[in-house]
Amino acid sequence: MSYNSSTEANCVCSEDIKKDEESNFDLVLKEKWMEAQKNEVFRYILNIQDSKILEGKYHFLVQLNIDRGYKRRFPENIISMNQPFNEKDFNFTKLVSEEQIMNLNNTDKDDIIAINASPIEYCHSLLLPQRCKQLPQLVTKHSLVKAVELFSLSLSSYIRVAFNSLCAFASVNHLHWHLYYLKWRMLLEYIDVEKLRMQLSFTFGGRNFHNVSLDQGQEPIAEETIELSENEGHWVSLQNVHLVRKWLPTLEKKMEQCSKNPHDDYRLFIRAEPSPDRHESITPQGILKSSIKITNEPPSEIQANIHKALDNFSQQTLESCGKETEFKAIVFALCYYHAVLAERRKFGAQE
After folding, report:
1. Which residues, 6 or more positions from 297, have their beta carbon under 8 angstroms from its beta carbon?
2. Any idea where the GDPGP1-like N-terminal domain is (predicted)?
């Protein structure tokens, strides 16, 4: 038997994790990974016999994965963090085509995602940035950017991207990142950063930035902070205003008062989760009209709006122009632009 654990699995139980969402990237990755498993590309079928949270400060997750202990590829002999790449050792240019899931671009960067033939978790894959450059296992700017981009492609709350350095569990000296889905919450997700900020007396720009996380009883503190900042030219960030819905009309009046003669440097940032009912707004109209609005809600009807716009053009119309390819490209661009504007209308006008 073998227990596999590392700091990358630093987490606590996930009972309160919300239902997982999936993007097209998540769906394709999972489909390709399961297809590889069906085709017996892996060294073994993933079977985690047991999972356990260790007692102690860090709540390490330990999982029993017997097959990985006995059937994984024998690790490379790593003796230094500066160990150079050795083409004679196993490296990811030697992967067979069945192990390669997807190419992230069509440039000479050769950034690909491949399965990990000895998986430790569901959909355990490898991000291989600039694979053909045969770089050693050291973080590069390009690889870090690609790792972050994977997060932007995914909607899953379970996705994890990890890097094992040389002399710290890395078994192959060829630049790679680990990618998998872990249904256990990372310890980092539970850290109360607001308490740390108060403990360290931390503020940006020499104590001129104030962060108020709204909950029961925090409204008076928020009002005092706004008044101070409006006079002194500070910045204020109000978080989780959706939790104090009854107080928002008071905030609206406070903003109206402060707008009469504010300090030039005064700024107010308001953060809230969207209403469960898309036809109902939690935030009062007065606040919305006086604000620059930014949303990170993924568009839900772009594709439908594009199809609806394209349906106005018959095949005969699309083929009637002498420059058919160029004409179709222009029509599609206009339909896409229209779809974006139609989606944008859901969030109201920017004034």
Report:
1. 274
2. 25-180
Helix (H, G, I), strand (E, B) or coil at 12: strand
Taking only the tens place, the pLDDT of each residue in 318-348 is: 888 888 888 888 888 998 888 888 877 766 6
14 CB-near residues (< 8 Å, 6+ apart): 183, 184, 185
Between β-strands 159-162 and 112-115, what pairing exists: parallel, antiparallel or unpaired?
Answer: unpaired
Query: Token pair for residue 289?
Result: 């009209």
pLDDT category of residue 18 using cuts at 50, 70 and 90: very low
**The predicted structure's pLDDT at residue 198:** 59
Task: Give Dmax (Cα) for the chain.
Answer: 73
DSSP-based three-state secondary structure for 137: coil
Please state the length of the chain.
Answer: 351
Q: How far is 91 from 85, CA to CA, in rounded Å?
A: 9
Side-chain half-sphere of 297: how many Cα atoms within 13 Å? 18
pLDDT of amino acid 136 = 94
Query: Is it the case that residue 83 has pLDDT exceeding 70?
Result: yes
Of 59, 124, 176, 234, which residue is the catalytic one? 176
pLDDT at position 144 over 80 = yes
Q: Are 26 and 162 in contact (CB under 8 A)?
A: no
* Residue 251: count of CB within 10 angstroms of its CB: 23
> Would you call 176 a catalytic residue per the annotation?
yes
Reduced to 3 states, what is the DSSP secondary structure of residue 275? coil
Residues 337, 343, 345: CA angle, nearest 5 degrees: 105
Collapsing DSSP to helix, strand or coil, 311 comes out as coil
Distance (Å) of CA 28 to CA 153, 154, 263, 265:
11, 11, 51, 47
Sheet with strand 235-239: strands edge to edge: 209-213, 235-239, 267-270
User: What pLDDT is attached to residue 139?
Assistant: 94
The HSE-up count of residue 33 (CA atoms within 13 Å, CB side) is: 24
